[in-house]
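Data deposition worksheet. Section B asks for the primary sequence of the deposited chain exactly as it was used as input, without tags or linkers unless they were present during the calculation. Section C holds the resulting structure in token form. Section D is free text for depositor observations; keep each observation to a single sentence. Incomplete worksheets are returned to the depositor.
Section A, Depositor: J.P.
Section B:
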Amino acid sequence: LFYGGTPAAYHLGILNLDSGRASIELIHSLKMMEGQDNSRIFKISGFDNEDQLKAQVKEKAMDIGIVIPEDYSGKLAGKAAENNLAPAQISFYWLC
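Section C:
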């Protein structure tokens, strides 16, 4: 993913606005991701609002910020049922 040398754990901030199962599964998958040395890739922190998350990324307290929108699980369920809904999208924030 972001590997380029020695193993590192990235600080990942998540704002989950969705109350469905898909967002919970996504967060669980991120928590369980392991690198080549079997260590966790992400250290995850939850956030209550987007401004706070963006500020932490800007201040470099978080390496990456993710916002899961409130319709994320519903859109994935619609895609699975083959409804022609817009794709489920997640917002990412990081400093280059």
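Section D:
The chain has a mean pLDDT of 87.
The chain is about 30% helix and 20% strand.
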